[in-house]
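Render this sequence as a predicted structure.
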Amino acid sequence: MSVHDGPEYATDPASEIDFAPLENCEPRVWLMAYAGKGGMTAEFPFHGNEPAMMSAVLENRGPQSALFHATTDFEHPQFGHGVLIRLTLPVDGDAQVAAMLNNLEVTSPTKWADQVGAWCPDKLGMTFVTFVASWMFDLNLTHTLIADATLRTRWARAAFVGGLK
């Protein structure tokens, strides 16, 4: 039995989702945000409160912020079109660091956020990746995912500052 043996999943692109209303929602938990039809990009404080563009221009140093990116131009091989969400931290890491972060999330006494996704290494930094199929996506869900990304950024910063165990 495969996923395709079950109900018919919507295969229409989720590109009609308009994220623009999220750009001005309160409270503003990001340093910068851009949103529109088909996606949203935001930066959360990590090493400091400076957006990546300012870090690059002012001193040619690495970013101080975590990058949140939601896009609807992704198609999952089993679940069809939907929203791909990536939270990238400005830290290097490999598969072992990603495994430690995933383990810490599920074994943490606070278990502060939903484990909808996983950490993995990426060329831009350590990245938490989540996919929400369009047939189950609701713009209100994005508020929750942004809140989770904010909390996850703070939690990960504490994990890196305190040292991964």
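Summary. Helices lie at 20-23, 52-59, 95-107, 139-162. The chain is about 30% helix and 30% strand.
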